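Example S7 (structure tokens).
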């Protein structure tokens, strides 16, 4: 009987471990992260770069920091703020020449994101943790250089609303530390690049697609820590 009692005690002691939270389930935990990488701005007159073999000049630097919280294993939120550099162009077709009218500018921005964690949806937690996110926010653009265009020069500064979506591929360690890549696309109202074509511009000048947003694609690499 004593041996049976000991065996039962050992088995019962192990039962709670069967229901213990996975070290990769971050439900109810805060996190902080920093990230940085490249940004490509696609806005009015971007063909000034692509048509002249200057695509690489559209690639600039950006970085951000964020604080987040996971309500469940599948759903979380984060508040992120950052800084980015950008490239723009005045309309090369408006002058009747093939001259390029490039300029650069900067932005500071903030977003509130909602995150959907794939592992939490499947209830299959592991060190590789893919997630999708959508967010709303705003940016201030400033520091525009002067392209000296005869008709169209950017307005400085500008405050613009925006929204974004993206994908995160994260690799975590049991310590709570993780590394990730973040691929996202941000869309801002048309003043982001300091240029907003008027109805007359749309009607009388070539080169305007009429797209109502300035787009910023970002590829970041970062580090995250999930608090215990």
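Recovered sequence:
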């Amino acid at each position: 009987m004593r041996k049976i009692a000991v065996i039962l005690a050992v088995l019962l002691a192990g039962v709670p471990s069967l229901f213990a939270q996975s070290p990769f389930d971050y439900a109810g935990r805060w996190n902080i992260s920093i990230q940085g990488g490249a940004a490509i701005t696609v806005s009015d007159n971007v063909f000034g770069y692509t048509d002249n073999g200057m695509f690489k000049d559209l690639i600039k630097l950006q970085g951000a920091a964020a604080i987040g919280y996971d309500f469940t294993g599948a759903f979380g939120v984060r508040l992120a703020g950052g800084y980015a550099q950008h490239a723009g162009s005045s309309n090369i077709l408006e002058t009747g020449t093939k001259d390029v009218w490039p300029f650069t500018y900067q932005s500071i921005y903030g977003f509130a994101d909602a995150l959907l964690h794939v592992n939490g949806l499947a209830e299959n937690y592991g060190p590789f943790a893919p997630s999708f996110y959508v967010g709303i926010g705003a940016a201030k653009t400033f520091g525009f250089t002067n392209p000296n265009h005869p008709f169209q020069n950017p307005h400085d500064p500008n405050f613009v609303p925006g929204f974004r979506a993206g994908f995160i591929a994260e690799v975590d360690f049991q310590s709570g530390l993780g590394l990730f890549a973040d691929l996202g696309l941000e869309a801002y109202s048309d003043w982001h690049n300091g240029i907003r074509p008027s109805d007359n511009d749309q009607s009388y000048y070539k080169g305007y697609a009429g797209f109502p947003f300035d787009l910023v694609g970002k590829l970041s690499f970062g580090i995250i820590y999930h608090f215990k």
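Notes on this example. The radius of gyration is 24 Å.
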